[in-house]
Design brief:
Order of helices and strands: HHHHHHH
Keywords: Membrane, Transmembrane, Transmembrane helix
InterPro entries: DUF998 (IPR009339)
Number of domains: 1
Radius of gyration: 17 Å
Protein name: DUF998 domain-containing protein
Number of strands: 0
Structural class: mainly alpha
Strand content: under 5%
Amino acid sequence: MNKLTFSKYSAVGFVSILFLLHIINTTVNPTWQPISEYALGEFGWLMNLAFILLGCSFAFSGMFLIQKFTNIGSKIGGILLLLASVGNFLAGFFNTDPITTSPENITVIGQIHSGAAGLLGLMIIATIFVTIQFYKQPSLKPFKISILLTTTLVWLAELILVGGMGYYLSKTNGMITEDTPIGWYGRIVIVLCAVWCYVCANNLQKANFQRT
């Protein structure tokens, strides 16, 4: 099985597990609690696995881009995906503190998780560099529309999340509470990131890179 297939399967695995957790773990309120909270419940190991799978999806796509293409844009995109994958791996091994934890009681492990989660932003930046390659590389041009649409959705969802956080958190002194209904915003962003990885890997395979 090659890197691109691994990337696709890992992305599907992440989304499938996340969907399952919304069914079997009803202690987390998806309207305001982030997905990291699933790692604290009875089925926490599933959320840990999901984070690791998403990290694998980023990593395999990143490695492929670095190895297959020689231009600087592809390599920057690949490196950013690899760095983002590290964030997911760390999130999978270091659980978050409960979202209601006061700042003075946040643990070192919780701080590591929060910092790791922030690396997802590098993946979102990577989508720009990679999408450009679908317009520059002759073999990728036939697939430029699907990757552009997916990248647009990722960025639109991210901007809505940032705007929503800015609006609601300004009313709660920066604390995520039941009065900050941004849980679904974050879920949509991370699911779209997984979808983007699937679409990217699938398009690269269609462009006759299957055996790499």
